[in-house]
């Protein structure tokens, strides 16, 4: 997979620089061509000779070779690379890259490189959790940088917490995954609904549910990473979309979600209904805050539009339509009923009976039901679950 790939490794000044030697060894062993750029600070931790020997290439630090004036072109290094991995990436370098500062060969190459840049942050726990660093990291992610998350554990400072550079094997796997990831949804438009809806009782109160939106957002990232253009119609949630290929359409009520779905559904090749739409709304929304009187208050609720049900009636043969069913009892029967009444190609069933599945969790345990088959999966992260769902969509596209 890595055979013949050109990988530029940037090393900045952190104690974990010694682990980068193992990373370079792994990359070379798997057939990659490796060149290394070190900052001056990195050279305080590891000798360039170590990296030069392992990469079988000279190590670059300066713009010019002081002995013969030869120019180490950041432009040609940036163009040469298929992937630029910065490991370890210190808080200082992350801050510089996030702000477009080009004050050494490494940061300058970052600005001029055309390939993906993957960063493996390494720093003390307080520097890592500092909102400035977190903001810089999230800015980089939203610009399409890949991050290999820091690990928790013992830190060089003697403290313990999050900030340890990911292990060389983890960074190597991320690089492998980068090269194996196919843009198999390139050219496809995907509409995804996510999160809860809010149905107003009065200007300060609403009816809603516990949906966190994590599943819908994980799906949006998965399709975007695989080349799709994603329209994410989302209720109010804490999670944020990272990929620049995701357009978030923020809504509040079921009616607003329905109107946006009507807008985006006709042009969508794939539509995934992951939102937990409120099934009822107050018949009337009070104009002013309802005052307590000491008496009971009755609210009359009327049904909201079944968005999936309505879109299912309009679904074209060439569109893939996917639903979710969160059930607490008679799970399979209920899901099968929804599969057919809403005209889904398949439905993703999760049961609240399963530990770690459902609202708020970072994990999910799903069963995918089509009209003819049922496939159950293990408890997995919502990112991994998204891969399974996207793969199922692809399988159906290929069968059509
Ligand atoms: N759905 C929708 N609009 C609604 C209700 C649900 O689009 N008003 C979609 C959900 O996003 C999901 C599927 O329909 O993909 C099934 O949702 P669910 O809440 O499980 O089913 P309901 O049809 O609401 O039935 P019930 O709540 O009675 O189980």
Please give the structural blueprint.
Layout lengths: L5 E6 L5 H13 L3 E6 L1 H4 L4 H8 L3 E2 L13 H7 L2 E7 L1 H8 L6 H8 L3 E6 L3 H5 L1 H12 L3 E2 L3 E4 L5 E5 L3 H13 L8 E6 L4 E4 L2 E3 L6 H12 L3 E6 L11 E5 L3 H11 L5 E4 L6 E3 L18 E3 L3 H8 L5 E8 L3 H11 L4 E6 L11 E2 L2 E3 L4 E3 L3 E2 H18 L1
Parallel strand pairs: 1-2, 1-4, 2-3, 4-5, 5-6, 9-12, 9-14, 12-13, 14-17, 17-18
Antiparallel strand pairs: 7-8, 10-11, 15-16, 18-20, 19-22, 20-21
Bound molecules: cytidine-5'-triphosphate.
Structure notes:
Helix content is 34%, strand content 24%. The protein has 14 helices and 22 strands. α1 packs parallel to α3 (48-55). The strands form six sheets. It has an eight-stranded mixed sheet with strand order 13-12-9-14-17-18-20-21, sandwiched between helices. The protein is elongated, with a radius of gyration of 25 Å. α13 links the parallel β17 (320-327) and β18 (346-351). The structure holds cytidine-5'-triphosphate. The site of cytidine-5'-triphosphate (CTP) has 16 residues, from α12 and β17.
Provide keyphrases for this structure.
single chain; 400 residues; alpha/beta; eight-stranded mixed beta sheet; six-stranded parallel beta sheet; 14 helices; 22 strands; binds cytidine-5'-triphosphate
- N- to C-terminal distance: 30 Å
Unreliable stretches covering 5 or more consecutive residues: none
Overall spatial form: elongated
User: Rg from C-alpha positions?
Assistant: 25 Å
Strand order of the largest sheet: 13-12-9-14-17-18-20-21
Count of DSSP-assigned helices: 14
Biggest sheet details: 8 strands, mixed
**SS class:** alpha/beta
Identify every distinct bound molecule in the structure, by name, code or SMILES: cytidine-5'-triphosphate
Number of strands: 22
Percent in strands: 15-25%
**How helical, in percent, are the residues?**
25-40%
What integer is the average pLDDT?
94
